[in-house]
Specification:
With 496 residues, the chain is mainly α. The chain has one domain. The chain is built from 15 helices and no strands. Helix 2 packs across helix 10 and helix 4 packs antiparallel against helix 6. The radius of gyration is 23 Å and the shape is globular.
């Protein structure tokens, strides 16, 4: 991001034009943010209800088998990632030829990966010591091809901050997946219900995408468009490899060392923190990347936007994660049943991961929007170097809790690296935007002490509840502090 302090004289007409442009960008961002938040709330509400129903119908092993298959597919897709979506979003002027090339590359990649997975399914199943995975993976491979057929114009919707149509697409696909999956689970009561619902959703999404985001497609490998997309996407490719290793490598380790039952428990423990720290922040990231791309020359505007996003992250994510960490022993049996009790302790640890991941997501979107994707590549390379040597010995020593700690500690390292990179781009004045993070550290320490107290005296019922109440009080104070700090600015922003 070019942030030069030397400015040429600005006429009144130019100033008015800049101000008008800033207002238009702000209103586009606010409208997109409204749709994104509404869509996220509805989609995750549907997903959470689906999870509650399915955990009552299926066994941990069913979720573990689906998780193992999904992890393999994600690995193959990640290590063949072309970075098409961020490349289209970041490119100043996207042509029809760019979209045709993006679709062509996507379909070719889908065919190659599907055929490769079909041939290697048994080998992969044997290496993971999950014999039943072979045939399951072959059927699941069809999802890769179905996903590749989506309209490339979906990327343009994000670029243009047209979240109304994008949210409509995501919610429609989610509703179809939930309805089909629950219906099949009532009938089959096996992992095949999870797979069937997902494949139907992929097929429906491919058809719906061309209605939501029309695009005239044809085969094209135009050299100019290829070079343009690859020049940005190459950093995204490498970053995606490191990201996958950190985010999904634990699935392979847990699946091999703890079996599909243990993997199912770990997936449930990951579900809520991921929803809070990753999925929730992906809503902000969807808006942030194109917003920062539009505001590259407005240093003051970037600083204000980053500060507001850090406060919103602290206001929404930190209290939610800490409340879940405090109440996990009561929530898990109540919502999912006693069969999932092994997920309680890893869930608590992963709430720390959720907080670190959320703040990282805010700064990562800024780095990419500032056209500095190489910073993300370097950061994730270091995180990968921290995670790989720790996840196996931690899992061997402490089981699911060890795997959770390996991920949480890695993201704490990543958080420090993201802070350093952000200061590198914007200067030391950006540190004022990090106040919500400093407060979050104090809150985490308070809740950690409460959890330790409740575990130290498990026989004292009153001590456990006292620790829970103290933690929830800290959560409330933290949320109130950030709201009192940002409420005026939010009201002014929304009313403008």
């Amino acid at each position: 991001m070019a942030m030069s302090s030397n400015h040429a004289p600005v006429t009144s007409g130019e100033a008015d034009s800049v101000a008008t442009g800033a207002v238009r960008i702000r209103h586009r961002v606010l409208e997109a943010g409204g749709w994104a938040m509404a869509g996220f709330a509805v989609e995750k509400g549907i997903g959470f209800l689906q999870l509650i129903v399915l955990t009552r119908l299926l066994l941990p092993g069913d979720f573990g088998l689906m998780a193992a298959s999904a992890a393999v597919l994600l690995a193959i897709q990640t290590f063949s990632e072309l970075g098409l979506e961020p490349a289209v979003i970041a490119k100043p002027n996207v042509t029809d030829e760019d979209l045709r090339v993006a679709w062509t590359l996507s379909v070719i990649r889908g065919f190659v990966l599907t055929l490769g997975l079909w041939g290697l399914a048994d080998v992969i199943a044997g290496s993971l010591r999950i014999p039943e995975l072979g045939f399951f993976l072959r059927v699941h491979a069809a999802g890769v091809l179905l996903q590749s057929l989506h309209s490339p114009a979906l990327f343009v919707l994000l670029k243009q901050l047209d979240l109304r149509r994008r949210v409509s697409f995501d919610l429609s696909r989610r509703l179809v997946e939930s309805a089909v999956t629950i219906g099949l689970a009532c009938w089959w009561q096996s992992a095949w219900a999870l797979l069937g619902g997902q494949l139907v959703a992929f097929l429906f999404g491919s058809l719906l995408s061309f209605w939501i985001a029309p695009c005239r497609i044809r085969w094209s490998l135009d050299r100019t468009a290829l070079q343009s997309l690859w020049s940005y996407g190459r950093y995204q490719n490498v970053t995606a490899w490191f990201l996958f290793t950190v985010m999904s490598g634990g699935d392979f380790v847990v699946g091999r060392l703890q079996g599909v039952g243990g993997l199912g428990q770990y997936q449930l423990a990951m579900a809520i923190p991921t929803m809070i720290g990753i999925r929730a922040m992906s809503v902000i990231s969807q808006i942030s990347l194109p917003t920062y791309a539009l505001m590259q020359k407005d240093r003051a505007g970037v600083l204000r936007a980053l500060s507001l996003q850090m406060s919103l992250t602290g206001m929404l994510v930190v209290p939610s994660a800490m409340a879940v960490a405090i109440l996990a022993p009561y929530l898990v049996p109540f919502l999912f049943g006693p069969a999932w009790s092994a997920a309680v302790e890893p869930l608590r640890v992963l709430c720390l991961f959720a907080i670190a991941a959320a703040f990282c997501s805010v700064m990562a979107a800024f780095h990419c929007g500032a056209n500095r994707p190489e910073l993300q590549t370097k950061i994730w390379a270091v995180m990968c170097a921290c995670y790989v040597p720790t996840v196996i010995p931690f899992t061997i020593a402490w089981g699911l809790v060890g795997a959770a700690w390996a991920l949480a500690l890695t993201f704490l390292v990543g958080l420090g690296l993201h802070l350093k990179a952000t200061v590198q781009i914007l200067g030391v004045e950006v540190t004022s935007a990090f106040e919500p993070l400093r407060w979050a550290g104090g809150l985490v320490a308070l809740v950690g002490c409460g959890v330790a107290l409740s575990q130290a005296v498990p026989s004292l019922w009153i001590a456990q509840w006292l620790a829970a109440l103290c933690g929830l009080a800290g959560v409330s104070v933290y949320g109130w502090h950030l709201w009192s700090r940002e409420s005026l600015r939010l009201r002014m922003l929304w009313g403008s």
